[in-house]
Amino acid sequence: KVLAPLRNAFFRNKGSYKEVNCKVKRKYLDYLLEFDFYTSIQIASKAKNKGIENTLLNNSLKLLKSDEYDKIVFDVGTNFGYLSIVWANTICKKGKVYSFEPHPLLFRSYTKSVKSNQLENNIITENVAVGNELGTIEINLLSTSSNTLDIESNKKNDKKEKVNMITLDYYVEKNSITKCDLIKIDV
Fold first, then answer.
1. Which of 14, 49, 66, 153 sits in a 20 to 30 Å window from 41, CA-based?
2. What is the pTM assigned to this prediction?
């Protein structure tokens, strides 16, 4: 508690994370990638030094590697979008990544990364939640992790926002998507 104001001064901006542009240079299997990644200071450090979800990325790339680079990936709970950016630069170069992130601040950072890396043709960004029915849900705006629905956090937090919720079935049908190679869900 004593150090919280100091931590917040360095890592937060008006109750939320401070956004930075991290230049990532990383190798996954045979793919050497360089890309801009807009994120929080803490995640930027991790992305630059260790990478994010390395095992998941390497396994998915190994499983889906082909000469066509035409894979279709659904990234549900995109967060800052690191995985989507890697997939768009590798197995989905001629395919698509459909990404879903309900948190408006995370979505804003993520779309900056997509634009900065000129991936608008490969990544379809959707600022919605994905669930088992169509409707709206209330999310915790102070959280930037996958616990935006956490009941205990929400009891202490009055910064909430209602967001639209869709189902994957609805989205696939609405957009006439006929193929899916991978679904990543982190909500």
1. 153
2. 0.87
